[in-house]
Amino acid sequence: MTDGSRAAVAGAGGATGTIYDIGYRRYDGPRLGRGHAIRSLFDHSLRSSFGIGRGGRSKIAPFILGALCLLPAVGMVAALTIFAQFGGGEGGFVARAPIRYDTYAASISTIVILFCAAQAPELFGRDQRHGVLSLYFARALRRSDYALARIAGFITALLILEILPQLLLFLGRVLLTPDIPKAVGDDLPSVGPVLAESVLAAALLGALSMTVSAFTPRRAYAVAGIIALFLIPNIVAGIVIGLGSSTLGSWLTLLSPTTILDGTNAFLFGTSLGGDLSFVDLPLVAYLVAAIVGIVGGVGITMRRFARITA
């Protein structure tokens, strides 16, 4: 066919395309498989929770909230340093201080909730807004793998927020005493309850926050939903108690994640619920059971959500 005839055919048939040989070859390298995909997504979720790998603005909220979680421990260590320098009776001060192993989780609970509201919507919401779920599910990664890796990454981020300040507090209490072996022996029994409470707090708050985030791609809705989830049950229980039904109010406290964590903290450290919760007439083990139910339920609902979602 001559050039003139080609032009005539192109003119008659409309616009035509051109095929270029770009040397495409099939990938013949190693395929790392499902396990590597899960680990990569877990690592990405953990880094994204702190804004690592993203722009500078994405790091502002997590780093500020992380610093606020450390602030009580830093203040306590500074006070212990002053007492040690001036030869004060730091033992009595430590016993009466408001910042202790059994009170630290409660003292930073509001900050951790703000971290959940700020960061949890980023993990599930961005994937849904940008329509990349189909790319994840087209690989070896299963839908349940995707949900579990995202949740595990975020829970690990919360665990860092919970444990790192307590580790700083432990080192400060031990290293600022004249008899370090004795100090280690005195504080060692608290390590188990601290680790257990940190795991429960991170798992419960993280699982529930990610459950809310999984149901809406809109960041504003997810933030409002997470805050409401952690605040409204407390308000409802207070109203019921104000109306004179302390028994019903006691059971309603099992719907409040923050109150559940107060109960697990008291259970693990062998203390009692005080303050506004002094009216509660429930065995402390009930809060431990409620925490486990909340964790399992939150993870299960999230997995079911992504099993049914249209990518």
Task: Give a structural overview.
This protein has 311 residues and is an all-alpha fold. 74% of the residues lie in helices and 0% in strands. The chain is built from 14 helices and no strands. Helix 8 (143-175) packs across helix 9 (180-187) and helix 8 runs antiparallel to helix 10. The longest helix has 33 residues, at 143-175. The chain is globular. Mean pLDDT is 85; it is low at 1-12.
Mean pLDDT, nearest integer? 85
Number of strands: 0
Q: Assign an overall shape.
A: globular
Number of helices: 14
List the helices and strands and how they pair.
Layout (H helix, E strand, L loop, with lengths): L2 H11 L19 H17 L6 H30 L4 H7 L4 H7 L1 H21 L3 H5 L5 H33 L4 H8 L3 H24 L4 H24 L3 H7 L4 H13 L15 H24 L3
Summarize the model shown.
The protein has 311 residues and is mostly helical. The protein has helices at residues 3-13, 33-49, 56-85, 90-96, 101-107, 109-129, 133-137, 143-175, 180-187, 191-214, 219-242, 246-252, 257-269, 285-308.
For the structure shown, list the relevant keywords.
14 helices, 311 residues, 0% strand
